[in-house]
Input
Amino acid sequence: MAGPAWRWRSRTQLAAALRSVRALQLQVPRAEPLQAALYVHWPYCRKRCSYCNFNKYIPRGLDEAAMRSCLTQEAQTLIQLSQVRRISSVFFGGGTPSLASPHTIAAVLETVSRCAHLAADAEITLEANPTSAGASRLAGFQAAGVNRLSIGVQSLDAAELRLLGRDHTAEEALGTLEEAKKLFPGRTSVDLIFGLPDQSVASWARGLEELLQQCDDHVSLYQLTLERGTSLFQQVQQGSLPAPKQEVVAEMYESAREVLRDAGFRQYEVSNFARNGALSTHNLSYWQGSQYIGIGPGAHGRFVPQAHGQSLREARIQTLEPDNWMKEVVAFGHGTRKRTVLSQLELLEEVLVLGLRMDVGLTHQHWLQFAPGMSLWDVFGTSEEVKELEAQGLLVLDTSEESHSLLRRQPVMQSPSSRWR
Output
């Protein structure tokens, strides 16, 4: 399994192949489809886990009505700014969005439906922590419009849960999973983390196999990233915990892929596995380079602000700190702190890098949606960088008549990373 250094070196090589085609910079930007996915960030948690550096806060005197009002206001503002007519999916992430009341979730979805078309069967996902997702609360989220649940199980080992700073037990996680499957059959996902200090391949495999006896049809595996500013990073830096050995982590990943494949799961993305067609359509919109709107403190987005007469996408980041974000939403209708216009070349680089996370890679037809009139072969067919990766068996540029051109990385390239959000 290739490590992060290889992954970023490959990205540089492939981006160089893009830049070598000067005509790309002369392309007329394509017209964006009038639809987008929507990500909603709930920034609050009961406690901070030892490994987590997400934008999250421990609430003190939270005014949920004020937060709800600002979420709905920002959703309305940014949807209108984008001028999209359809929201393809909604994802409530965090933080711990299962700490929000079902009333807040319903209010956001009602606002979205007023501003754009939200199909009755659109995927509406909520991330849940086992200690804030009892049966009645889950039923409340379902009544509010949620139809898919993502449960942060992380581990079924008591010692590992303590190490990660989780506030639930394995029994609580499995109980939440059982209740979720009743309400969201075929649409319940679980998250697991591997590559912990002192974690063995055997203990990881035991936990995964135990989970597979009770899980639904979607599993996400995330390799632990030791992030600066977290207590786990500090413990490893100080030597009180051993740094995970990369060869052991690699073996964990490969063994998990094999176990999941034998259980009928398809690895459709670097970190994500599904069976019975239970792929996350919201996350697929990221990896396929679709527009998405991010609302809430610290949320990210990629969309064209067409109401301003623009034709290029902007990368947007909302103000991080919740109280400051709410003040900005009240004053301006949104809390966008940073806007970066993406050139056509930068957009294609994102489409390339994200597309190579998926098992299907980049098809010719999909690529042409972003680079009209310029096939994958035109861009990469004579690239020395691509030829080098092909020679190493790490990339496939398939130009057979059946595929009509396909750029796909080989399984050996697949390496788990921090979750996309």
Summary: Residues 1-9, 411-421 have pLDDT under 50 and may be disordered. The first strand starts at residue 35 and ends at 42.
